[in-house]
Amino acid sequence: MAAKIHMQTYRVAVAGDEAGILKVFAEVASEVPTAVRPQTEGYIKRFVASGQSWVATDADGKIIGYVLAEKAADTISLVYLSVAKKARGQHISTALVSKLKESGVPIVTDVQSDNKSSMVERFERLGFVKTPTVFTGKTKLRWEKPATPASRDAPT
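The structure assignment produced for this chain is given below.
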């Protein structure tokens, strides 16, 4: 049996990606849990227009995952992270979050307590830490670029 080769491409989301993002959003919405609502497409357009959102595409150029985010002050707010069910187990979420981390600015997100896909644990494995919140029903998480240790060869 031949091994299945997965070829993903990662890029900043651009205008025109909204339909593909919405398709994945609708497929996995019940796990978040959320639903496609009349305002959902508008939200997706806003996050795509922010220039902070990324998509993963398969070999045919079809969107199979995305991270919707926007920057406020010097922090990126990660709003949604989803991967199509057929594309899971390929570290796509990890790669998408890594793209956000490349900016070097702190990233904040929250996960609803009734999320069905172990997202709190996944974010913790990606270096996020839980932060205090006054909101019930959500876990807030934050990632910050680790401080660079001073070189031992540096003059003192």
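Interim note for the steering committee: The longest helix spans residues 18-28. Strands lie at 9-12, 54-57, 63-72, 75-83, 107-112, 129-131, 138-143.
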